[in-house]
Amino acid sequence: MMKKYPNLRINLFLGIILLSSSLILYRLFVLSVVRHSAYSLTAKAQKENINNILARGNIYLSDQGQNLFLAATNKKFPLAHIVPRDIEAEARDKAIDLVAEILGLNSLDVKSQIDFQSKSLKVLARRITNEQVDRIKNLKLKGVGVSYEADRFYPGSNLASNVIGFLGYDYDGKRAGQYGVEGYYDRELSGRNQNLSGLLNSKGPMAIFKKISGTGSGSSSSQEFDRPSDLVLTIDKNAQTFIEKQLEDITKKWQAEAGTIIVQEPESGRIIAMADWPNFNPNSYAATEPKLFLNSGIQEIYEPGSSFKPVTMATGLDLLKITPQTSYEDNGFVNIAGYTIHNFSDRVFGIQTMTQVLENSVNTGIMFVENLVGDDNFLNYVINMGFGQKTGIDLPGEVSGDVNNLYSGRKINYLTSSFGQGIAVTPMQLINAYSVIANGGRLMRPYIVERIIKEGGEEVKVQPEVVGIPISEKTAVKLQSMLVSVVDNGFDKARIKGYDVAGKTGTAQVPDGSGGYSEKEFIHNFVGFAPAYNAKFVVLIKMDKPKGIQFAADSLSPVFKEITAFLLNYYNIPPTRK
């Protein structure tokens, strides 16, 4: 062999040198370019005595003029520390009393830290005030001092907290985004990258976007550091501020347990505003009840009641079983399979058109439509409109709702579901279904992040995604007109002079836990859009268990009008009628 290849050893040796040189050059590239941000920040931390340096991208809200507003960033905070072994014996009692008084701590707790005689730095209090910083420094006690650490800071405090989430800790005790976009986009914000196999194994509607952007949230065996990215949300700061105030006012007015408002752009699926009440301050998440971290818009389900009726009506219109003028005679109740189902108000309406069925919210009229289309068709349209499945919004913890009753084969379940009882939806699913009506029949994937800005200014913009076309454009236009009639002839408190406004309320009974429904507790919701025939936004308002008022038409119509009027003015939308 050696005679045939006399230069083999030399070539192998040169190959090894070349490979080693390549590895060294690659390592230098990683150190000098790829990880430059992290190392430079770490060097600064060592110089300025900052602990736990945090390299994490910013999160921004925007406004109509595309101005950016910081929603989450990194900030240097002072903390008070001691090094117990460095505190001189004769100064210990003085140190205990003074430090405890300045920081508002229990003297015994401070004493236990000092008596431990550790030579490691011990943190006594974080995020101390400037006054406390000055007083600690002025003590000039050996072993007692002030350090600085970089941590997450939320300039807007509670604003959009259910969307943003917070930076907390994972199960391994490492810093990690929790809830909201902080959790969903933790990789992008922290700069942890995943390998190619992780990208190829990505699932769901966001997979294509993540492959294009070079990021992702899937699991990966490779956790190499990349440069942190900034996020620009679809949330409009001004719209968010307005709806949060409206939501707080309405829930307090009616002493409701909780409330949710979502504003969506139907053409794209963008979420313009999304709020829960009560909410929380992510700057002090440790002092917050964990249940407040949940985003009710995607993580809680409820029976929608009459606001679901347009979905059933869409099925009948799309299958050409009815028109808006189709009539039937209402006798006030329906007997079927041993059950008697009444209209919600126990009223008898007589001859009604399908438009009037929506205007008067006639349960028997909706059951008439369900009977015409058939159970299988009804189920198919419910699924195609996005119910019983996740919408794919880029927020963690989304639930699928519950339409299992429609797989039971029991006729009574189909009939009650036709008017929104016996099935459960998320607010996000319901507003997305109304966006189908407002958007000419196209079902869009809702999304929260508008674009990702990488270090160096490169931007990856999220593109709207059509998930399906569950109803025809003709059906959508007919429903738009019918829902305008609902507002014009039913909800005078929701009408806005000069504009075509479409909408429908729902007053749903709350299950009592024993197979029936409470006679005293209700969930109110109102979903509508404007301008009706070229909708720029859809609004959903939900209020849980209000007191002193029975119908959503009375409780939520005024706030729907306030929000709609604000948005029409904010987006400078011209009148659509005289």
Structure description:
The protein has 578 residues and is an alpha+beta fold. The protein folds into two domains: 76-149, Penicillin-binding protein 2a (Domain 2) (Alpha-Beta Complex), CATH 3.90.1310; 238-570, 3-Layer(aba) Sandwich (Beta-lactamase), CATH 3.40.710. It is built from 21 helices and 21 strands. Strands 1, 2, 3, 4, 5, 8, 16 and 17 form an eight-stranded mixed sheet that branches. A hairpin with a 6-residue loop joins β9 and β10 (271-277). α13 crosses α16 (375-384). It is elongated, with a radius of gyration of 30 Å. It starts with 7 loop residues before the first helix and ends in an 8-residue tail after the last helix. The model is unreliable at 1-6, 24-51 and 194-223 (pLDDT under 50).
Condensed summary:
This protein has 578 residues and is α+β, with helices and mostly antiparallel strands. The chain is 37% helix and 22% strand. It has two domains: 76-149, Penicillin-binding protein 2a (Domain 2) (Alpha-Beta Complex); 238-570, DD-peptidase/beta-lactamase superfamily (Beta-lactamase).
CATH architecture of the largest domain: 3-Layer(aba) Sandwich
SSE class: alpha+beta
Residues in helix, %: 25-40%
Q: How many structural domains does the protein architecture include?
A: 2
Say what oligomer this is.
single chain
Beta-strand proportion: 15-25%
Average per-residue pLDDT, rounded, comes to: 86
Q: Given this structure, which CATH class of the largest domain is correct?
A: Alpha Beta
- CATH topology annotation of the largest domain: Beta-lactamase
Number of helices: 21
CATH homologous superfamily descriptor of the largest domain: DD-peptidase/beta-lactamase superfamily
The end-to-end distance, rounded to whole angstroms, is 97 Å
Query: Rg to the nearest angstrom?
Result: 30 Å
Summarize the biggest pleated sheet: 8 strands, mixed
Looking at the structure, what is the overall shape? elongated
Low-pLDDT ranges: 1-6, 24-51, 194-223
Number of strands: 21
